[in-house]
Specification:
The protein is of the alpha/beta class. It has helices spanning 14-25, 70-75, 86-91, 96-108, 121-125, 129-140, 165-179, 193-200, 217-226; strands at 3-7, 32-36, 50-53, 80-83, 112-117, 148-151, 185-188, 207-210. An eight-stranded parallel beta barrel has the order 1-2-3-4-5-6-7-8, surrounded by five helices. The mean pLDDT is 97. Bound molecules: 2-phosphoglycolic acid.
């Protein structure tokens, strides 16, 4: 069983979601499909498809205009939430400490955080990848409880570039050493039908986090079946 996680980011409307759910319902797979949707699409008929969100507040409730709490997500039967995506870290200045608090808040409400870590281009080019990932893990990941780690090199997201298999493997092994065997590890960054099978066959890759290619069933379905 592999995790196939869709990250719709700020894309999609109600009819796109209904269409995707209709298509996914007809698929038989042993893999775990999770649709991480914008907040506006969490409501409605999810027909047994596992739903995730893309962010959660680090606070319980209160005067935090525009934020959404873990308790609120719970009301929509959200089972997973992405925290610390590079786009949140970059555009919303989320630090490791904030990501850590968000992950703990999700856990407290029985929502499994999918914690994203990844090196930026200059770290990659200067051979600092593992060092950067280790720091992020130590500072962002809760001490205990259920969680998933998504390794997403910043420079691979939405760029059509991916690390080599050896590079992915080295990072996954390093993450495995730190988090242990029980934590699922995902790779994300330009996963598409043509590379999904290869990436999913790398040791310690328990699944993929898919952005762009998850928006349409034509590109999402081959990724789901690549993992069969
Ligand atoms: P991408 O995005 O598949 O479009 O590169 C992945 C992600 O950011 O989760």
């Amino acid at each position: 069983m592999k995790f196939i996680v869709a990250n719709w980011k700020m894309n999609g409307n109600i009819s796109d979601k209904n269409e995707m759910i209709k298509n996914l319902k007809n698929i038989t797979t042993d893999n775990k499909i999770i649709l991480c949707l914008p907040f506006t699409l969490l409501n409605g008929e999810n027909s047994g498809i596992t739903i995730g969100a893309q962010d959660v507040s680090q606070h319980e409730n209160g005067a935090y205009t525009g934020d959404i709490s873990a308790q609120m997500l719970k009301e929509f039967d959200v089972k997973y939430v992405i925290v610390g995506h590079s786009e949140r870290r970059t555009y919303h200045n989320e630090t490791n400490e904030i990501v850590h608090n968000k992950a703990e808040m999700a856990q407290k409400n029985n929502i499994v955080p999918i914690i994203c870590v990844g090196e930026n281009l200059s770290e990659y080019e200067s051979g600092q990848t593992i060092k950067s990932i280790e720091k992020m893990l130590h500072e962002s990941v809760p001490q205990s409880g259920k969680y998933i780690i998504a390794y997403e090199p910043y420079w691979a997201i939405g760029t059509n570039k991916t690390p080599t298999d050896d590079e992915i493997s080295n990072v996954m092994n390093a993450i495995r050493q730190i988090v242990g065997n029980d934590i699922p590890l995902l790779y994300g960054g330009s996963v598409k039908p043509s590379n999904a099978q290869q990436i999913l066959s790398i040791k310690n890759v328990d699944g993929v986090l898919v952005g762009n290619a998850s928006l349409k069933i034509d590109t999402f379905l081959p990724i789901i079946t690549a993992a069969n």
